[in-house]
């Protein structure tokens, strides 16, 4: 894999989660452009720099020792990547302070470097949270590969930060440079809420939650076919999002024990608040993590999963396949993984390579619900 070389550092970086023969690198031209732009400003060693949505730590790991850097984002895997890349390049794993996206910033910051996230609602929430956190004369610079840079990103920077200047394209990347100016206080439109009929609950959704404006059609198909009569089973909602699958299941299985896991901090925050609203103080574990990587082997009876088919801008079934492997490891013999997926993804054949029995529970024109037994 090529090294990331900038005026700040020369780094050997890896992606998360790791896979053998990784076809993609852990940085891109937008990371290089951001770092080269900051280097031209010649920041002082005491300058406070906030990095937002650093994919795998390329930005923060480059800046350590050059400025006072803080990293914030909504991805557990990105933070894990930062820690591993710090160690890989001779730093302590905790050398960069990390602020999960649902927690407030502690400014003032002299510079803010932003990788434009796939979900613009997350960018909007982050820009609103920068209010009162910028030092006088602070610059906020957002970067993306041009094919992933919507016009709305510049509109958001102008609305919440100040005048925006778009850079020339370099290696198919572009910067949006915003100069902070006084703005009237903005009220965040997040979290959003929507009502469900079956079960009759209201779901709260923080800015980076998938389908925060309404239930996605895959989950809707899944809800009608969740397993019942689970007794005291130990159940995990893997990639829980706002927690709707676990909550609906828990309402039908009052004695079952639930663990909800997602790699998005905002999803975990949403799931925790939704669980409390629907189920009060009923015992539950809700945590951010790398799927079931930290789950003890053979400690679950049932896993529910609506697997993702992308990581940031990268589309593929690598994450889903990894989640299926994690589920198999965590399930007891005889335990079952229930999933919903698009028909064309052929999850049935993938599951058949890991589990002793795979059956179709139900199907719609677009989705299949499958049960895989260990």
TrEMBL record:
Q: Name one GO molecular function term.
A: methyltransferase activity
PROSITE patterns assigned: N6_MTASE
Provide the function of this protein: Specifically methylates the guanine in position 1835 (m2G1835) of 23S rRNA.
* A Pfam family that the UniProt record links to this protein: MTS
What is the species of this protein?
Answer: Pseudomonas violetae
Q: Name one GO biological process term.
A: methylation
Its Enzyme Commission number(s) read 2.1.1.174
Q: What is this protein called?
A: Ribosomal RNA large subunit methyltransferase G
Which leading EC class covers this enzyme?
transferase
Alphabetically sorted, this entry's keywords are:
Cytoplasm, Methyltransferase, rRNA processing, S-adenosyl-L-methionine, Transferase
Annotated compartments = Cytoplasm
Q: Which residues are in the RlmG N-terminal domain?
A: 2-181
Q: Where is the Methyltransferase small domain?
A: 201-371
What catalytic activity does the UniProt entry give for this protein?
guanosine(1835) in 23S rRNA + S-adenosyl-L-methionine = N(2)-methylguanosine(1835) in 23S rRNA + S-adenosyl-L-homocysteine + H(+)
Q: Which family does it belong to?
A: Belongs to the methyltransferase superfamily. RlmG family.
């Amino acid at each position: 894999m090529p090294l990331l070389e900038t005026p700040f550092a020369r780094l050997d970086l890896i992606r998360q989660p790791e896979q053998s023969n990784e076809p993609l690198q852990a940085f891109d031209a937008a990371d290089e452009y951001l770092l080269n732009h900051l280097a031209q400003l010649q920041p002082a060693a005491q300058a406070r720099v906030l990095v937002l949505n650093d994919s795998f730590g390329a930005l923060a790991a480059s800046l350590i020792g050059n400025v006072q850097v803080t990293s914030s984002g909504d991805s557990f895997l990105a933070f894990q990547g930062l820690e591993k890349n710090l160690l890989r390049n001779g730093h302590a794993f905790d050398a960069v302070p990390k602020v999960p996206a649902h927690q407030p910033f502690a400014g003032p910051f002299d510079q803010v470097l932003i990788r434009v996230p796939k979900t613009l609602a997350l960018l909007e929430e982050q820009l609103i949270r920068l209010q009162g956190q910028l030092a006088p004369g602070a610059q906020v610079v957002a970067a993306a590969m041009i094919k992933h840079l919507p016009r709305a990103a510049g509109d958001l920077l102008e609305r919440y930060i100040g005048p925006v200047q778009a850079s020339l394209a370099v290696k198919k990347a572009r910067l949006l440079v915003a100069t902070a100016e006084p703005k009237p206080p903005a009220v965040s439109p997040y979290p959003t809420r929507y009502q469900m009929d079956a079960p009759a609950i209201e779901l709260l959704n923080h800015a980076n939650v998938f389908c925060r404006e309404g239930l996605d059609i895959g989950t809707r198909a899944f809800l009608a076919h969740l397993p019942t009569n689970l007794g005291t089973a130990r159940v995990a909602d893997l990639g829980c999002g706002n927690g709707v699958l676990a909550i609906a299941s828990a309402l039908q299985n009052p004695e079952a024990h639930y663990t909800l896991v997602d790699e998005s901090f905002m999803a975990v925050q949403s799931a925790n608040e939704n669980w409390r609203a629907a189920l009060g103080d009923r015992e539950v574990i809700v945590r951010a993590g790398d799927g079931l990587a930290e789950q003890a082997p053979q400690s679950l009876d049932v896993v529910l999963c609506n697997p993702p088919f992308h990581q940031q801008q990268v589309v593929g079934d690598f994450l889903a396949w990894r989640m299926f492997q994690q589920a198999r490891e965590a399930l007891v013999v005889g335990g079952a993984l229930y999933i919903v997926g698009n028909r064309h993804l052929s999850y049935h054949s993938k599951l058949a390579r890991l589990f002793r029995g795979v059956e179709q529970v139900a199907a719609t024109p677009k989705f299949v619900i499958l049960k895989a037994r260990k």
